[in-house]
Design a protein that fits this description.
With 283 residues, this protein is α/β, with parallel strands linked by helices. Helix content is 40%, strand content 21%. It contains eleven helices and eleven strands. The strands form two sheets. Strands 1, 2, 3, 4, 5, 6, 7, 8 and 9 form a nine-stranded mixed β-sheet that branches. The protein has a two-stranded antiparallel sheet with strand order 10-11. It starts with 8 loop residues before the first strand and ends with a strand.
Length: 283
């Protein structure tokens, strides 16, 4: 029987114009102590030196699979593309501007040992404005062990979604439907995942998140090619995506509950929403 430490981990990296930080991100992946990896890179019509850098690394590491998109994809489509093209028992998303310590994957895999309930394992989160520095550790509470399914869903309704970049059980993650949503597409995915399974914290693995401040308009233009952005329409789209995603995993009552909790979350943060500034990555 093959244990978790020996199983294939698929890493999906959706990129658009990531040349300035890509080498740092790729180095932190190819140098992982867990070597049984497939690294799936989806280049979303980049017009910088992303392709050149990827081919440089691909010539040195046969684990890299490179897809150059001919037609522009939305950010949610690109994230889904790398997931759908993965074959590993476990899956991890990786942005072109984030890094991890070299034992990140091996340490997180230990969290799945003898645990059939967990769908996602994540570790310690650091944030930094510099691609060359680790920055400071963040107090980040996402663990939902020993909660009911609805309690887990409620806790996962949070704009802070860094644990999206932990390690997932691929089979369960692929069961979740992703719906188009210009603003914060990942927010509906995590509550639906929490309804399916548990999130576990493992101390030690270090995820280093590069903070990039962008307005809603800048993010919409960069990620999805949207030149005209209306944040009120986008919020409505987000609530609808939340309903659809949770409805798919738990039925209409769960979908309505998820949308209601998300509405309350954004009502609480409405002053920040009006200002339109977020610390979000530009994947």
């Amino acid at each position: 029987m093959v244990n978790n430490k020996e199983k294939l981990v698929s890493i999906g990296m959706p990129i658009r114009n990531g040349a300035s930080t890509l080498r740092f991100a790729l180095d932190s992946i190819i140098n992982q102590t867990h070597k049984n990896l497939e690294i799936i890179i989806s280049d979303n019509c980049s017009c910088d030196e992303t392709s050149k850098i990827v081919f440089e690394y691909k010539n040195l590491d046969s684990r890299i699979k490179y897809y150059k998109q001919v037609n522009f994809l939305s950010v949610v489509e690109n994230f889904r593309f790398v997931l759908d093209n993965s074959v590993g028992d476990f899956f991890m998303w990786a942005a072109h501007d984030d890094r991890r310590n070299d034992k990140y994957i091996s340490q997180l895999l230990e969290g799945f040992t003898n645990d059939s309930k967990t769908i996602l394992v994540f570790g310690d989160s650091y944030s930094t404005p510099s691609i060359e520095e680790d920055g400071v550790i963040s107090q980040y509470d996402f663990d939902n062990k020993d909660m009911t399914r609805l309690q887990r869903l409620k806790k996962a309704v949070d704009p802070n979604c860094m644990h999206l970049y932990g390690i997932w059980k691929s089979e369960l993650l692929k069961k979740i439907k992703f719906y188009p949503c210009v603003w914060a597409w990942d927010q509906p995915v995590l509550p639906a995942a929490a309804f399916i399974g548990e999130f576990k914290y493992v101390a030690g693995p270090r995820f280093i998140y590069l903070t990039v401040i962008k307005s809603h308009e800048q993010r919409a233009s960069y990620q999805d090619g949207k030149l005209n952005f209306n944040k009120y329409i986008s919020l409505a789209e987000l609530l609808l995506a939340m309903f659809k995603t949770c409805n798919h995993v738990g039925g209409p009552i769960v979908g309505l509950y998820g949308a209601y909790i998300m509405f309350l979350q954004h009502a609480k943060n409405f002053p920040k929403f009006l200002k339109g500034k977020l610390q979000k990555k530009s994947t």
